# Entry
Amino acid sequence: MVAESNNAQNWNQQIGNGWGSFLAHANDDKSMSVGVANNAASRVEIPGAFSDLNTWHHYAFSFDNGVVNVYRDGQLVGTKTASAFPATWSGFIVNNTGGDGINGSLDEFRIWSTARTQSQIRENMYHTIDAGTAGLKVYLQGQGQPGAAFFTEVSGNAYIVAADSSVQREACTAPVARGLSQSLTIDSAGRYNFNQVGLALKYQPGGNYPKGEAVVSRLNAKPYAAPAGDVYRGQYWIVRNYGDSAATAVSSIALTNAVDSLHNLQLSSRAFNASGNWGVTANGATTEGNADVAMSTTATDIRNNQLVFMQTGNAAPTFTAPANITVIRNDTCGYNAATAVTGVPSAVQDDTDSLPVISYIDDVANSSCAANLVITRNWVARDNAGRLTRHAQTITVKDTTAPLISCKTDAVQQVNSGGCTYTATGTELDITATDHCSAVNLSYTLSGATTGNGVTSLAGVAFHTGVTNISWTAADACGNTANCNYTLTVNNAQLSVTIPDVYAVNPGGDANTIYLGYGPSSLKLTAQVTGGKAPYTYKWSTGGTATTAQVSPSTAGAYTYSVTITDANGCTAFVSKQVTVTDIRGGYQKVIICHKTSTGSSFTLNVNKSEVPTHLGHGDRLGACVAGSSKLAVENTFQVMVSPNPSTQHFTLQLPAYGEGTASVKVYDLNGRLVEEVRGTGKTIIFGERLIPGTYIVEVVQGKNKETIRVIKM
# Structure
């Protein structure tokens, strides 16, 4: 145990159950009595044990086959052969209550089941030990709450340790920490390397030497009340000499295998059991590059001292952390955040000879989804003096891979027997999807003959007669999606509907076509129903509910109209029809037609509206002859050709071979505004490249010849 007494009087500072078991107590003459039996033959008296109050001392009591040994700070201070063996303990009193109790501090209290040797005592008295160490029965380090509570027993044997109300728990000032000790026998001059603990002691020739054991203990912690500055490697040492007390002092001390020059190194010391001020033993710069850092200690006796090396001029290391980076998960959901990928610190510097030790710890947190992570990589650079610098790097891990879909092909089914719809069963219309990082959520949207949406499965969905578009979306937990589309056509042999072709102009016109510039401006579409059970209801896309729908689109283009029929049984049928609007206006009271000659050839004419019936009567048709090129003419007059017409870029106008002189081409919009004018002397003139989409009137004049043409810019 390690103890520090505040005062000494008869029978105080008492530890133990009493004579006949074990007892240690103070006497008025500041001595200590310790033993197992209440007689002089069994007790060991330690003179002056309490002469230096408020100072830490280590005491060890061993009982081995009746032989009692008592050690104070590693020195044997008394031995006896006990007259009787102690009685079996049912418990043990560490501190009596009342005036006989300990007036001081106690730490590192241990009870062993085997007697400890002098060597074990010397090499372990400054070190904490591990729970579960062989032979360790009770181990108190002061953990627990002060007052009337329980202290924590840390041997691993779980003994209960009760504390009375006068106990106070304080920060320990005793020289105790984890570490290592090494013993050597000193019997001549020279250097003695305590390599296990990193120190070397040198004795000059011609002096007296300890002629006995020296123990050096390295404590892996900063000492209590350390001097100002950086503690070298966060460690300190205790040197104990157990030989001849008249031996010559150590002449020099060296840090073995010191990798840095450690400029501004200072060695400070204090008594081995002190907790107060330090004295400067040696200081000054050392020689760079030496494997050892040696300092003279001739002026100060460092035997039986605590030693600490301070680096008073050291600055913390500096470095630049790697840049933040995003790492993408691969197809198996794995990711690589190794430093070979994410980078390592750069510009690492320190004011010692060797570079600091670089390390990192990762803090991993989930992000927007389970597969997305944010890794905070906390980089640390630590030098040999213990100074450190921290910088953080953010590594974002993302899942960007969409699920893998196994889609269906287009399918055709008949309505269910006796019904109006086809009902999907099982998984016949379902897709499957997989993802390497998370579960997949499936959703669908239906359009066309059947509309609606849902999730997971189409089982039980009733599909109406006609074509239904089925669109699936597979989404993983991170929002990555894949899509799949196919159709289901449901046929109903019992109920069907058609919209027959209808003509605005016949002969000479195309089915389901309205011509701007000639003929009616509307068409009547009629729904013809077969099968099913009357009466029928009609629902047109125009909003109408009759058997017919009058449609009047007025702009060139293609328009789709549909009707849904429902019979008395609730069965439905769906059909659509496309209506085309073609602009054949060729100018004022003129119409563009496709003229057929007696030889079977055809060319485009721009004729007076009054002449159209005659042309249609002998086989001509409304509109230009061939899409993409036009031969535009007025019968028996000046003829020009424009191609392509319609055009998405420009128009090429070809003048007749017999034309002479400069040709003028003027382009007007339908409001009569001149938008472009071009002149040329050749047989080919390019125009219209800058026109916006629309219909234009082109006036071509060459000499006395004049022609008007209608062109369409797409």
Remarks:
- Confidence is low (pLDDT under 50) at residues 284-291, 627-636.
